[in-house]
């Protein structure tokens, strides 16, 4: 039996990736909206209620409108937008956080896909806060480097169809959201349990996809003051057996390129790699993954598999 899936907003970057991934599968029947009826509310409503699973690859306001159109109690919704990531009535889609979280996802009918920056931040920090190593009151900072595909079609066009006269200006890294109110911050705070929002600086650079999310910590401010080796061991134990999570060798042994960490290494996969670096006084956590994979469409498909009772890694690498 094939499950019926409708991608509402299939022309966006995430929607296209989800659709491309699912189109290769025999256990999925993609419901298509006719090109000339994409703005036809009645037709969209029909497909939303016919589907077993709906992906809402839409801006926040449009995603909420689509949710309101679903009247079929059997239709499950997966929302990659920001609209429901801190909504207590929606399940947050990181199954690796705990067995309880995976079970909630399996039973869910309303699931929110985490933001890309938030994915790397939460997966590196959550185990340390949950174990009481990092106090919930810790003044966390985070620096996140991402490829320009994370900005969607508008930013992709800005980098790829730019006037040659100004292309040189786009060659270097560009920090943004400097008002410290990036849309991922609320979910980063809520789903780690931090008492205060982290100071978060995202940076876009001149490469298409891939990202590195970095969190520095002072050893003296941690409970029992564990070193990098102890932090590394805790993360290894936490994520042991997880298909898509790799806690990399301590200090990046064997994974660095002449001392440099390549942000592109996980591209084309749903894999996330967590690194621990440090010295006697400081510890640095870095998550590396594909912002279009584990940071978007890959995570959406992984959660869909769980919600439909399929193999978690079906169609994913």
Overview of this structure, please?
With 317 residues, the chain is α/β, with parallel strands linked by helices. It has helices at 13-22, 41-50, 60-69, 99-107, 116-130, 152-160, 164-167, 185-192, 228-238, 293-307, and strands at 3-8, 28-31, 53-56, 76-79, 91-92, 110-112, 141-147, 174-175, 199-205, 211-218, 245-247, 272-278, 282-289. It has two domains: 3-113 and 296-307, Rossmann fold, CATH 3.40.50.720; 116-291, Dihydrodipicolinate Reductase, domain 2 (2-Layer Sandwich). It contains ten helices and 13 strands. The strands form two sheets. It has a seven-stranded mixed beta sheet with strand order 8-9-7-10-13-12-11. Helix 1 packs across helix 10 and helix 5 (116-130) packs parallel to helix 8 (185-192).
CATH superfamily grouping of the largest domain: Dihydrodipicolinate Reductase, domain 2
**Number of helical elements:** 10
How many independent structural domains?
2
Strand content: 15-25%
Classify the secondary structure makeup into a structural class.
Answer: alpha/beta
Q: Mind summarizing the main beta sheet?
A: 7 strands, mixed
Provide the CATH top-level class of the largest domain.
Alpha Beta
Secondary-structure element pattern, one letter each = EHEHEHEEHEHEHHEHEEHEEEH
User: Uncertain spans, ≥5 residues at pLDDT below 50?
Assistant: none
CATH third-tier fold name of the largest domain: Dihydrodipicolinate Reductase, domain 2
Mean pLDDT figure: 95
Strand order within the widest beta sheet: 8-9-7-10-13-12-11
What is the radius of gyration? Answer: 20 Å
